[in-house]
Amino acid sequence: MSIILKKNKNLVYPGLTWFFIFFMLPLTIILVYSITERSLTNGEPLKLTFENFIQIFQRKHYLVIFLRSLKISFFTTIISIVFSYPAAYFLAKRTRFDKILIVVLMVPFWINYLIRTFAWKLILSENGILNQMLMGLHIIDEPLRIMYTQTSVLLGLVYTYTPMMVLPLYASLLRIDNSLIEASLDLGASRARAFFDITFKLSLTGIFAGTLLVFIPALGSFAIPAILGGTDSVMIGNMIENQFNMVGNWNIGSAFTLSLAVLSIVLVLFYSKIFGLESIYKNRGTV
Amino acid sequence: MKRDRISVLKIYTILFFLYIFIPLILIFIFAWNKGEGYVFPLQGFTWNWFIEFFRDGLAKKSIGNSIIIALSSATVSTILATLLSIGLLKGGFKRPQLFLSFLILPVLMPSLTIGISTLVFFRTVNMPLGIPIVIIAHVSISMSYVFLIIMGRMESLPLSLQEASIDLGASWLSSIKDVVFPILLPAVIAGWLFAFMISWNEFIITYFLIGTNTTLPIYIFSQLRFGISPKVNVISLLVTIFTLAIIFMLVLIRNVYKKIILEQNSV
What residues does each domain of chain A span? Predict the structure, then answer.
């Protein structure tokens, strides 16, 4: 018995070793870079400093981008909740075909998001499909300039990450026992009251799980603002890329990267404290 | 009253599905459209963009690279994750949750942070960027996904099964190979396909680590940034068909797996 366990136990080492060398160690190096000056490799003694983090808050340019990214990701999350809630509700409570519809809904999620972003470029650009349609119907005379603004970035992010919101919402709504709602109605609650006091409250797990799955990738997004955005919609991801590929300031770049990582870990910890870690991946529901 | 509410929801859901699918359908339509621009009305049917795509050497090279990276990273990560899940869940660990909360990190962190930290790591140890490094980084993220998938199925595998086989004279190695592994196999295959898809679609990490080489998502990105041609529509269409084939396989495996479980339970 114990020999089996011991031998089984040894199987963890290849994976764990890989995980520590290629995942944890790089993160540690980022940490070292973010709290030092200059490069690790040129042999000079390391000097501890918090200057890199202080700069994020002191330089107006950095702070603006940081806050803008938070704002855009926040609205992406809110809009995707509002968009997906009714659909998730319908799927969970009002149809027998929910299983197949969920699979259908996941299809675009598996298609490269660059391709999906490309679709929005076709729709939103100045002589794009939306403007052609609106001008053809004489609703507007001049083309709308949506492309290369924060609006187009927001639309692209919402479109890309909304399916991630539907899944956990659907899963949490599905778990709600209908007899609870019936009981509250029998006891005299209005339909609105029954919805807000029971259905909505019990679906909060799903909303929070979905928030993690939408907010974190939106905050770290890089390709979507690069394709759909302009100069007023640069996000943290674009700035980090700029620090590494153009400016070459690894220390500031690392400080930004680490802030992003820590922020997402804090959100996850906060969530797992309230709902338990298991519910994250149980709500994911792969295909 | 009640009927009205339901039908409003139904109409909303139909609109929601249209919202999700119409952009994709638009892309596919323009893959066969004659004109250069993306303008309605359509200007007639053509296969020209397909021909142009198949003549594009860079596109083919990037597809080849993507397939190499996806095949190797899926295989390595599936092997590591399978061993890891057996060891972690059947190895008598008192608090596997502790490891779990670490192992779930690559799933929940923005891929940008993983891409950057891997870049900094390999530049610090002075290894040249390129396909091998991309494969390594892809393994690090997909290992966690595959681990989660296999772990979900691990609950249906009691330790007593392995013990019984050893009591009946099997060696430890054969108990893993002939008893544990066949039971996990459907989840292992599903995990492999999942890992393949993650790597196949992955852009951000690859972007930082590929160096001067290219993969399909990198190729699409560069096309999107500097002027777009309906060739991109053709790529999108082909990639989508390929993706649907994989999803179909995933669903198929899942159904076969369910049947196996049902048969086992009825025995």
Answer: 60-284
